[in-house]
Write a structure and sequence with these properties.
Oligomer: single chain
Distance between the termini: 65 Å
Order of helices and strands: EHEHEHEHEHHEHHEEHHH
Structural class: alpha/beta
Largest sheet: 8 strands, mixed
Bound molecules: nicotinamide-adenine-dinucleotide
Number of strands: 8
Strand content: 5-15%
């Protein structure tokens, strides 16, 4: 079977100096892509102590193996400069993998504004700045692939990670919107919630789990999603330790009432079981239009006094 390849494509990977980012960078370079390895070499929590050499190390490893790559040391919040590196060196950008990330785990009770702001800044503002900078190039060439990195903490919540979870869920709405804005330009955007051994997980997971969670097993799904043959867009995926799955929203059939004076909490209470019942007639909404349909149905209902 022919190998999936990326010859002639330019792949930008943020946070490409370590963990998952490094694994992506080496994978795409080994399969023909020209890779921009962005990394400022920061600490796991974004506090001072940068070592920009991490991007250089990855570039050297790629070049030693016969591949093509260039380093960029800007913070993702300066996404324009990262994309500029791709354009300056390779004249184009085809794939953007927003992967850079840090943690500031702390409960809401003890969270300082800075713990919140820095997490939003790196994950959300960083992803926006890189995507916004790549967008005109994607539109012009009528082709682009974006992966934004979420987390199970964002999708489901996780104790002590309100800042990180909020940022990671923000990336879901961000990606679903980019997917809609990019559709007619053949720009595809998806969200990935990975699970992999890295310095971000070493304090959380026991050693045996760290061993099973090789970042290399996240890569195959990303490789498929950003390949020209894949038209998937606006979707959420999980990948880790050889497991891959897609996640979607599910809406219960619910209770539809006429929105007039007769619609009281008593009416809602009487019908609460219907609101939370997923067993019959549930749906999988993909856009705002699906909510508008429900409003129209509500307007068509008879009075709630019954
Ligand atoms: P990692 O710490 O090994 O790598 C992240 C890299 O991003 C580091 O090299 C760091 O220097 C770089 N970085 C941080 N802030 C940056 C900035 N402002 N600009 C440029 N580079 C910056 O972490 P990882 O585990 O490989 O995580 C990669 C991504 O996956 C992150 O977004 C993380 O939140 C997400 N994630 C990881 C896991 C997991 O199990 N490892 C789970 C869920 C989500």
């Amino acid at each position: 079977m022919a190998e999936i390849r990326y010859d002639g494509q330019v792949v930008v990977i943020t946070g490409g100096g370590a963990g998952l980012g490094k694994t992506y960078a080496k994978f795409f370079a080994a399969r023909g892509a020209k890779v921009v390895v962005n990394d400022l070499g920061g600490t796991f929590n974004g506090k001072p102590g940068a070592n920009a050499a991490v991007a250089d190390v990855v570039v050297k490893e790629i070049k030693d193996a016969g591949g093509e790559a260039v380093a960029n040391y800007n913070a993702v919040q300066e996404g324009e400069k990262i994309v500029k590196t791709a354009i300056y060196n390779y004249g184009r950008v085809d794939v953007l993998i927003n992967n850079a990330g840090i943690l500031r785990d702390i409960t809401i009770r003890n969270m300082k504004d800075e713990d919140w702001d820095v997490i939003m800044d790196v994950h959300v503002t960083g992803a926006m700045r890189t995507a916004r900078a790549a967008w005109p190039f994607f539109r012009k060439q009528r082709y682009g692939k974006v992966i934004n990195t979420s987390s199970s903490s964002g999708l489901f919540g996780n104790f002590g990670q309100a800042n990180y979870a909020a940022a990671k869920m923000a990336l879901v709405g961000f990606t679903e919107t980019l997917a809609k804005e990019g559709l007619k330009y053949n720009i595809h955007c998806n969200v990935l919630a990975p699970a992999a051994a890295s310095r971000l997980t070493q304090t959380v997971w026991p050693p045996e789990m760290m061993e099973a969670m090789n970042p290399a097993s996240v890569v195959p799904l990303v490789g498929v999603l950003v390949h020209p043959s894949c038209s998937e867009t606006g979707s959420i995926f999980e990948a880790g330790a050889g497991h891959y799955s897609k996640i979607r929203w599910q809406r219960s059939k619910g209770f539809i009432a006429r929105p007039d004076d007769s619609l009281t909490p008593d009416v809602v209470l009487r019908n609460y079981d219907k609101i939370i019942d997923f067993s019959k007639g549930s749906s999988y909404p993909k856009g705002v239009a699906n909510s508008v349909d429900l409003l129209e149905e509500a307007m068509a209902q008879p009075s709630n006094v019954r």
